[in-house]
Amino acid sequence: IRHLLLIRHGQYDLESKEHGLTELGELQSHITGQRLADTAEGVKKDRYGEYQVKYAGLVTSTVLRAQQTGAIIASHLPTVKRLDNDPLLAEGYPCIPQPGNRDEILKNNVRPAKLMQESLQIEAAFRKYVHRDIDHKKSERSKRKVDEAYVPTNATVSQREAVTDSSPEPEREYLIIVCHMNVIRYFVCRALQLPPEAWLRMRGDNCGITEIIIHPAGRVSLGRFADTGHLTIDKQTFH
To answer: Pick from 175, 176, 177, 238: which is nearest to 206 by CA?
Structure first.
């Protein structure tokens, strides 16, 4: 079972060109890193079983504020592998939101060419990180040529049903992804098969943690959204 921990960067300086973290943003990032470290030290136990959280890696976007947030979080997780910064995770407009004022959005420097580029980028990021373990379509195509006369056999159906969520408890993999709220909102819509245009209806504060859980057979659930329970009210910011 794959757990994607999507973390929005800390508060950043809107007045600077670099948009680096503010002092509060750095503090938010440290608190978030400590929460992740504490989580890995404990054991989750309930009626469904028990397991220890193990982080498979940490990746950030190529944007400065996300890189700075990721570096601070990584300082609390010295044994977690740092993956290469991923430009696909950069902030952008995934699509024209609905409901919304399309003319107003385009007026704010979100030109059609830029919108097309950023939407393709964020969709590529989604496909890279949100996927099932086994692609049944590809596995079947590799075994036989499918034409109009093809009829699935009982064996083919059995193979599909063999990968179910009721199988013995699989290993869990946690991947930490430090990126941006537009990207996170779009991931959630796409993963839950909701209209992608609804992405702007959701709000998430700095250093909020969103968890997308992907089961081996492809079932997806939302474990949490923009969780800032580790931050006291005076440290919670949207910008």
So the answer is: 238
Q: Are the beta carbons of 188 and 167 closer than 8 angstroms?
A: no
**Which regions in the chain score pLDDT beneath 50?**
155, 157-158, 160-163, 165
**How far is it, in rounded angstroms, from Cα 130 to Cα 139?**
19
SS3 221: strand
Two tokens at 115?
């919108």
Q: Provide the 3-class DSSP secondary structure of residue 227.
A: strand
Classified as helix, coil or strand, 141 is: helix
Evaluate whether 119 touches 95 at the Cβ level (below 8 Å).
yes
The C-alpha atoms of residue 34 and residue 76 are separated, in whole angstroms, by 6
Give the pTM: 0.84
In sequence order, what are the beta bridge partners of 210?
6
